[in-house]
Write a structure and sequence with these properties.
By secondary structure, this protein is mainly α. It has helices at 2-156, 162-269. The chain starts with a helix and ends with a helix. Keywords: Coiled coil.
Length: 270
């Protein structure tokens, strides 16, 4: 019995030792598992923080994208308004061109009427001058005939009394005065004709110069205004196009980055 009891006790001691060793091994494994659990918990918390940051960043990108879309919509609206303004300005230019053409036609018509009236006046004055020349030539002929008749009469008469000689002298004085008057009228007529010719040339020259100068000035002014408006419109279009292209490029970059972050978030979540 003693031997059996001793053997039983030894077996019990051996079992107790094994149990103690097993318990220590379990405790060590539990401690290791607790450490792993703590590490996993910390990693999970960090992952949650990263996920939260990524979600916040994605939301920020969405907000920025919405703002960018709103800005692009505003720019597109501005482009629409600018296009409407351009169309309006082009319409005004066409209207101005039409008004200018109408004004030029009116001016040319008025100038033509004035030239016609001036030519009619010149023709009338020339006709009057021609009639005056006819009268002068007729009077010259009459004076010459009277002078010839007077000389013939004086040659035929041999004796005259004093009164007849006085009458002849008065007649000669009258004829001489009339000849001087006719000469003055002839000189005045020649001067008038020269003045009419000079006036005709001067009026035609001035009319043509004035018309050419007015048309040139108006055309140059319209051309300068048109070029200025076209340059301003081109600059506005270019500026708006550059702004829109820049914003569209930035929007594409943000959307690409947003897609990459979403993909990374999905990978980490899985």
């Amino acid at each position: 019995m003693d031997v059996n009891d001793s053997a039983v006790l030894q077996e019990k001691d051996r079992v107790i030792v094994l149990l103690n060793e097993t318990a220590k091994a379990f405790q060590f494994q539990v401690a290791s598992l607790q450490g792993q659990l703590t590490l996993a918990t910390n990693q999970l918390a960090q992952r949650d923080m990263v996920v939260h940051d990524l979600q916040q960043h994605v939301q920020d990108l969405k907000n920025a994208s919405a703002d960018q879309n709103s800005t692009i919509a505003g720019l597109q609206s501005q482009l629409g308004l600018q296009k409407a303004t351009l169309d309006e300005v082009e319409g005004q230019l066409k209207t101005a061109d039409a008004e200018f053409e109408a004004l030029r036609a009116t001016f040319e018509a008025k100038d033509t009427v004035k030239c016609i009236k001036l030519n009619e006046l010149i023709v009338r004055l020339q006709n009057e001058a021609s009639q005056l020349n006819v009268v002068i030539r007729r009077q010259d002929k009459q004076l010459q005939e009277k002078a010839t008749a007077t000389v013939t009469t004086d040659a035929c008469l041999s004796a005259r009394d004093y009164s007849e000689n006085q009458l002849i002298s008065l007649r000669d004085d009258a004829i001489e005065a009339k000849a001087k008057e006719l000469k003055l009228v002839t000189d005045a007529n020649d001067g008038l004709r020269a003045q009419l010719d000079a006036l005709e040339i001067e009026l035609k020259t001035k009319a043509l110069e004035r018309q050419s100068q007015n048309l040139t000035t108006s055309l140059e002014k319209l051309q300068v205004e048109r070029e200025g408006i076209r340059e301003e419109l081109s600059a506005t279009r270019l500026k708006a196009r550059v702004e829109v292209e820049g914003m569209q490029g930035e929007l594409i970059q943000r959307r690409t980055k947003q897609y990459e972050l979403t993909l990374k978030l999905h990978v980490r979540a899985t």
